[in-house]
Amino acid sequence: MTSGRDALLQKNPDDVVITWAKRTPLCKARKGGYKDMSTQELLIAFFKGAKEEIKIDPSLIGDITVGMVLPPKAPYDARASAIAAGFPDSVPVQVINRFCSSGLMAVGNVANQIRNQEIEIGFAVGFESMSATPDRAPEAFADEILNHPVAKDCVHPMGWTSENVSKDFNITRERMDDLAAQSHQRAHAAQKSGRFTDEIMPIQALQLPSGAPATGSNSGSKQERVRVTISQDDGIRGNSTKEALAKIRSAFPQWGNGTTTGGNASQITDGVAGVLLMSRRKAEELGLPILAKHVCTSVAGLPPRIMGIGPAYAIPKALKRAGIEMSDVDLFEVNEAFASMFGYLIDQFGLPHDRTNVNGGAIALGHPLGCTGARIVATGLSELRKRKQKILVTSMCIGLGMGAAGVFVNEA
């Protein structure tokens, strides 16, 4: 009886497989390519592009799950945008929100629906327009929460948790700036060599003429916009060095050692990613190319004050479910929410930096909250194909003290 890596590589008609996984370019919020588009317009543009690329009749899709975090009327945005883009009204849509893991939760949710034979085909989408829906202050918390020794930590902003990780685990400012510079340098090299090209679906964006103030299109502005094709990420700074990053002032000097800055944390970004899943049996019936197999998704909880190290809790759970060890994994794609948490994962948890975020991460590319979990699936699978390697683990920390991880096998 086979076990471990060999067992993972076996194929079964009931496997949940991926036949399409792509992302839009990631663009700086309120400054980049999508700054003049509403939530619905960005979703519609993505759904229109995906509908042309997935190579199936969209009416065959049993469910669409959209991971998104900030939009206040998310279910309306997702459902109406899918229909407006040409998906038939017979295809249901739901929204899922587990903060930074929402895109991966969408993938896991669809995979489980297929395993349970609730649907044959499902479309998982990760989305965020941080231009159109900037972060909002939370409502007041109940006294029972504020008086609880752990629950009260959920009240604090994420920058506080980054400083806690940095101070508690001695992740220095110098180390954080070094990792941030490497993220930009890796991403710049990948972009320059065309390494991102096959994972990116160019998108038709609506933009105000040059020099006009950004509107997010939610302001009611009637100024005519022009249609522009966006095909590249716009947040990568290839000239970043740890020396230059060391000159940036602390973003949170009131907490910890004040090591977190705008240069060593993930960028505020807009973007969309999608993953089409179905059973292997259905993919073969439809004659679709199989890119990868979804093995499992795992989530874990931990103290909210150090939420950044969530992958150190979630990755072992996912590996155990998959029946493999860290040494069996060819590539890791981990969301770089803050360089403090990334430093912990590399230096103390033991992720191999030469196999983790090899083309840079969210510090360089950006972190559209709901999009990221699906984006890193598309990125990781694309890189596995180029390397002719097999096993991918994706992971991220999650606000409020959680972590998530997924295991995938490349079959392209």
From TrEMBL:
Give the pathway annotation.
Answer: Lipid metabolism; fatty acid metabolism
Q: Could you state one GO cellular component term attached to this entry?
A: peroxisome
User: Does Secreted show up as a keyword for this record?
Assistant: no
Q: Which reaction does it catalyse?
A: an acyl-CoA + acetyl-CoA = a 3-oxoacyl-CoA + CoA
Q: Which InterPro entries match?
A: Thiolase, Thiolase-like, Thiolase-like_sf_Thiolase, Thiolase_acyl_enz_int_AS, Thiolase_C, Thiolase_CS, Thiolase_N
Q: Which Pfam families match?
A: Thiolase_C, Thiolase_N
Keywords annotated in UniProt = Acyltransferase, Transferase
- Ranges of residues in domain Thiolase C-terminal: 289-408
Instruction: Share an example GO biological-process annotation for this protein.
Output: fatty acid beta-oxidation
Look up keyword Transferase and say if it applies: yes
Q: Where is the active site?
A: 100 (acyl-thioester intermediate), 367 (proton acceptor), 397 (proton acceptor)
Q: Which residues form the Thiolase N-terminal domain?
A: 16-280
GO MF annotations, alphabetized: acetyl-CoA C-acyltransferase activity
Q: What does the sequence similarity comment in the record state about its family?
A: Belongs to the thiolase-like superfamily. Thiolase family.
Descriptive protein name: Thiolase, N-terminal domain-domain-containing protein
